[in-house]
């Protein structure tokens, strides 16, 4: 079992997101995790450069890479179900933590110490995980913007809801990203150049 971790991680590309929504382009958790890693890294850098903090941006990126890895085992539970009530939310959190421990135990024993904070969250990394959660929401917002650009109105309400969730997080890093970088996601390729 100690050598199957990376083979299991390669299955991230098989888990589709947004199962309850009509998509103009499917997205899997492997693609999503790359985007979250890039966004979490950027948010940590914004925090450091603009807000005077000293967060390990590379660690934020690493956490972003693996933030949804447990979904290899659990699947991607649709948000309306996952957050339907406190009881379901708590039960799903327990299932996610158990799946994360299972993945962690698939690592060769000598490598586990390097992945501990990734799969077994530590209190000292709470700030980083908050940025990863914000990056996860930003990635979802970007998906909504992309779907709207493709003429898919299916994501209109999701976009409004995710914007509210991001505002409620009250993170200055997110405000800066949304003000300065997010508008470019509405541009065409020619406009980006």
Describe it.
It is built from eleven helices and no strands. With 193 residues, the protein is mainly alpha-helical.
In short:
The chain is mainly α and 193 residues long. It is 65% helix and 0% strand. It contains eleven helices and no strands.
Q: What is the N-to-C succession of helices and strands?
A: HHHHHHHHHHH
Rg from Cα: 17 Å
Helix coverage percent of residues?
55-70%
Question: Which residue ranges are poorly predicted, with pLDDT under 50 across at least 5 consecutive positions?
Answer: none
Count of DSSP H/I helices: 11
The separation of the N and C termini measures: 48 Å
**What quaternary form is this?**
single chain
Average pLDDT, to the nearest integer?
93
Most strands sheet: none
Categorize the overall geometry: globular
Residue share in β-strands: under 5%
Number of strands: 0
Derived from helix and strand composition plus strand pairing, the structural class reads: mainly alpha
């Amino acid at each position: 079992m100690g050598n199957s971790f990376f083979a299991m991680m390669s299955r991230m590309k098989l888990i589709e997101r947004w199962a309850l929504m009509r998509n103009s382009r499917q997205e899997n958790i492997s693609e999503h995790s790359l985007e979250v890693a890039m966004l979490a890294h950027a948010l940590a850098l914004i925090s450091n450069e603009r807000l005077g903090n000293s967060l390990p941006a590379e660690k934020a990126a690493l956490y972003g890479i693996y933030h949804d890895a447990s979904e290899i085992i659990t699947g991607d539970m649709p948000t309306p179900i996952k957050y339907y009530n406190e009881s379901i939310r708590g039960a799903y959190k327990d299932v996610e933590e158990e799946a994360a421990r299972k993945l962690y135990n698939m690592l060769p024993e000598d490598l586990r110490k390097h992945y501990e904070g990734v799969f077994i969250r530590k209190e000292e990394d709470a700030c980083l995980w908050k940025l990863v959660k914000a990056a996860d929401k930003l990635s979802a917002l970007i998906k909504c913007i992309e779907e709207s650009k493709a003429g898919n109105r299916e994501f209109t309400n999701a976009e409004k809801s995710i914007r509210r969730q991001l505002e409620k997080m009250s993170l200055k890093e997110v405000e800066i990203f949304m003000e300065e970088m997010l508008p470019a996601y509405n541009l065409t390729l020619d406009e980006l150049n």
